[in-house]
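Workshop exercise sheet. Pairs work together: one partner reads the sequence aloud, the other fills in the structure field after running the prediction. Swap roles for the next sheet.
Pair: D.N. / O.F.
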Amino acid sequence: MGHFFSIIREPQGQPMRRWINEIEHEGIIRYLDFFNKERIAVFGSEALTDVLVTKPYDFVKPIQIARGIGNVLGAGLFLSEGDEHKRQRKNLLPAFASRNIRTFQPMFWSKAKEMVHHIRKQIESTEEGQVDFEDWINRTTLDIIGLATLDHDFESVTNPSGVLIKTYRRILSANRWSQVLGFLNFFMPPWVWRLIPIQHTSEILQASNIIRAICRRFIQASVNANKDGHHEGAPKRDILSSAIATGAFSTEALLDQLMTFLVAGHETTTAAMS
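Structure field:
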């Protein structure tokens, strides 16, 4: 079975971190997945540059990854390949121009200060003086991505019981059933395992539908505002407004892009920070 069971038993990424320190390598480590299928873990800067920058279209995501994550994210920038990815990237690029990103810096700083303020209050109010830092990062990241993507503050920092943050926790929670479903991706298409009566499956699909419904409302409101000319002052620079302005995305395509930024962007940023 290769290293498959070691990978699913341990915390995410832990086996690879251990290999970096225990195995001599030059930026690439070969390991064996389920049924001894060969995989490579890329660590070196030169190899990462090849994969992510100079030759990204030579490295296609495994079909199992596309199947599993695609049920939640759809066919947005994260999962698209080849010419379709190039088209999406080209039309989304203006939203990520350095001038545009700089306009978000005051918001980033304000949200970070807000988080620190509430962490201090929590520490002062508990005898142990301890806090769940990962949860604070989760909530702060969601607020920041909401503002940058939708120009909307979800206020998760001040409201840990909000509908959206609770929905995120359901999607991103890893348990034994999520590992089982990941295993089933090797053998069957998504529509088959959706029919399996596992509570985790229905919870993930319900949570995804909730976030999609929220995103759909924001898309419709932004489209209507653009049509009616209701935006006051300077043009809005959030990702959704920039994507709509290109005219290159249908409503469903916009939904997939928002799911990519709200779910995948939130998860990767939180993991990096915590």
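Discussion prompt: The chain is about 65% helix and 5% strand. What would you look at next?
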